[in-house]
Design a protein that fits this description.
It is a single chain. By secondary structure, the protein is an alpha+beta fold. Helices cover about 35% and strands about 20% of the residues. It has 17 helices and 25 strands. It is globular and about 75 Å long. The termini are far apart.
């Protein structure tokens, strides 16, 4: 941390202690309900009620799905401060001084926080908006009243991080609109509920405004907090303070979208899931603003469009997106039920209508319910009017600021080959919290089917050894030296030393795509090692060359990893292995002079796993090649692709 950040954190600690002592009490003024807010969530006839009613009925009965836990009996009333995974009840102490990273105190904080984001209240509100059945409104009232009692401002784990109140405000805003706003039927029976809800809204917004994530923590959290502030300001303009919330939130969003996302559209967290998450938040604010006369700048809209362009570019013909960097499956909002929901395709569907992009429509394939709730009755008509082919631009293959390069043959066609290579920074700011030690790794998909993958994330605050593995170099398709990660870890969300990476050559023609990159992560060793990687795709021969050059003087242990998708069958053949799935065969001819083995579902050492969702993992085959080498070494791997087994 810089001296300025150290001083900031010291001042924060003093502020928190003063607030705990009651030196700065928050007074909530009486709201004026005369000024209306314009809705930015819409009910349309194109949304089939069935899935929403089934989901809402299940919620009303007290059942929730929370990450890896399915069918959690959440209680009636819910135990809002209890981690449903471990059963640990977080103490109702002053939130800003509560260590939510300590599992002995709060359990697994992700499991505690997720239901407290109140995404399930949106489902209840959707069911009410579609049917006008009072029982759904009553379920919302019961949930809110119990929450206000169990989680009083500013006590407990739900008041320990500003991002959580911000995401709660986003979901409250949607639910508020769907139940009719300040004068809706929900409050006719119990106007005291409206008063309590508005009081909590004010407390939430003021909490966020005075406790923003700054300095090294000013990453996606700050965008989420600003989104909560802005949406609160336009949804509840019932106090003079609301104008300040909206103005402050909008100012931060305008600044941070440009700081946290490179001009080529790559999110600087270097984590694809956070790219989608931020794009979702930024798009929600854009829509809320347009409905309420709060216009964002052309630079904001242009950068948001570039973010979606990157997502579309790395998505293969089957809709798969590489899992580079962290992912925790935490949702900002959830507006779709009962469909095979893909968040990446959903955000592209909404973006297709917003930016009139036929190529986004082609990748999204169809308009989903989430887009209908956000865009209104004309969304389907606007989506259908887009030409997905005539207006298509050539696929983008290079993103130099973000450090991603796409080698491909027949891109976006049924027989495409798509290689996504990573030569970007470790992550954002000094801690690079959500980056992985994956320099010069790559993924390979063929015909819309994944063959070589990034294994994902699996864990955050708990399962320390698993957290270390999934973000470490051995969990990526690259080279590891002396059993060390390319970057030096300092904690679950901290890297002490960052490997620098870059692209030294990029060429693309009708016959061949060529990428060469480098990183300096192992230059820190007593005998420094420089790693360069060449990827060369011969499009006609359907062959990928992977050539790793290691510049070193003395002996080192060298490992080369290839992580196979869990649906691949992997068979040993002379000189390498063959990967098969969906009638496609991929042969890997490994470098000579080493030994190789297949690892699948291993726990000692941890290897051979893929995590498609937070806190879930499944066995998958990892090919590990090893040798002890000295001096300049060139490792040549040839990957040949053919149809048929």
């Amino acid at each position: 941390m810089t001296p300025l950040e150290v001083a900031h954190r010291a001042a924060r600690a003093l502020q928190a202690r003063a607030e705990r002592a009651g030196l700065f009490p928050l007074k909530v003024p009486t709201p004026s309900l005369a000024r209306p807010s314009q809705r930015w969530v819409h009910v349309t006839a194109r949304v089939a009620p069935g899935p929403y009613l089934a989901a809402a009925d299940r919620i009303a009965e007290g059942w929730l799905d929370i990450f890896a836990l399915k069918g959690v009996d959440f209680g009636s009333p819910p135990r809002w401060n209890r981690d449903p995974k471990t059963g640990i009840e977080a103490p109702l102490t002053f939130g800003k001084l509560l260590d939510y990273r300590d599992p002995d105190v709060v359990g697994d904080i992700k499991y505690l926080w997720e239901p407290n984001r109140h995404l399930h209240l949106v489902t209840l509100a959707q069911a009410y908006a579609l049917t006008r059945e009072r029982r759904y409104a009553d379920a919302i009232a019961e949930q809110l009243q119990s929450w206000f009692i169990a989680c009083p401002y500013p006590l407990g784990a739900n008041w320990s991080s500003s991002l959580e109140p911000a995401l709660r405000l986003l979901n409250w805003s949607i639910a508020w609109q769907l139940v009719g706003g300040a004068h809706g039927e929900l409050f006719e029976k119990d106007p005291a509920l409206r008063d309590a809800w508005l009081r909590s809204v004010y407390q939430h917004a003021e909490f966020i405004r005075g406790w923003l994530s700054l300095h090294s923590s000013a990453n996606n959290h700050l965008i989420g907090e600003a989104a909560g502030l802005f949406v609160a300001g336009v949804t509840w303009p019932h106090w003079p303070r609301a104008e300040l919330w909206a103005r402050a939130g909008k100012r931060i969003l305008e600044r941070e979208i440009l700081m946290q996302n490179a001009p080529d559209g790559v999110n600087r967290e270097q984590a694809i899931a956070y790219q989608q998450y931020e794009a979702d938040l930024l798009m929600l604010c854009l829509l809320a603003g347009k409905s309420n006369g709060q216009w964002f700048s052309p630079a904001y809209e242009s950068r948001l469009e570039a973010m979606l362009d990157f997502i579309a570019s790395i998505m293969d013909a089957g809709g798969n997106v590489p899992m580079f960097g962290d992912s925790d499956d935490g949702c900002a909002v959830r507006l779709s039920q009962g469909e095979a929901f893909c968040p990446f395709r959903s955000v592209l569907a909404t973006g297709a209508v917003l930016f009139r992009r036929g190529d986004f429509k082609r990748k999204a394939r169809r308009l989903d319910d989430k887009s209908r709730w956000l865009l209104g009755a004309t969304a389907d008509q606007q989506f259908e009017a887009l030409d997905a082919h005539k207006s298509a631009l050539p696929p983008r293959q290079q993103f130099p600021e973000g450090g991603y390069y796409i080698l491909g043959a027949g891109l976006d066609q049924p027989d495409e080959i798509r290689v996504v290579a990573d030569a970007g920074p470790l992550g954002y700011r000094s801690i690079a919290a959500h980056g992985h030690a994956d320099a010069l790794s790559f993924t390979l998909s063929i015909g819309g089917h994944e063959f070589l993958v990034d294994p994902g994330t699996y864990a955050y605050h708990t399962h320390g050894r698993w957290r270390q593995y999934f973000r470490g170099t051995a969990a990526h398709n690259t080279v590891r030296i002396d059993g060390l990660d390319q970057s030096e870890p300092g904690g679950s969300f901290l890297w002490l030393r960052h490997a620098r990476a870059g692209c030294s050559l990029w060429l693309s023609s009708a016959a061949k795509d060529t990428f060469e990159g480098w990183h300096d992560g192992y230059m820190r060793l007593e005998d420094p090692v420089k790693h360069r990687r060449l990827l060369e795709l011969d499009k006609r021969a359907r062959r990928l060359l992977v050539e790793d050059t290691l510049e070193m003087a003395e002996e080192h242990d060298v490992e080369l990893f290839f992580h196979c998708a869990e649906k691949c069958r992997v068979d040993a053949v002379p000189g390498g292995y063959v990967l098969c799935r969906e009638g496609i065969a991929v042969s890997l001819a490994l470098p000579q002079g080493g030994t190789s083995e297949l690892l699948r579902g291993s726990v000692a050492p941890i290897a051979g796993w893929v995590s498609r969702a937070f806190d879930l993992r499944q066995p998958a085959t990892t090919i590990a090649w090893r040798a002890r080498l000295a001096g300049r070494a060139v490792l040549r791997t040839e990957i040949a692709i053919r149809n048929g087994r």
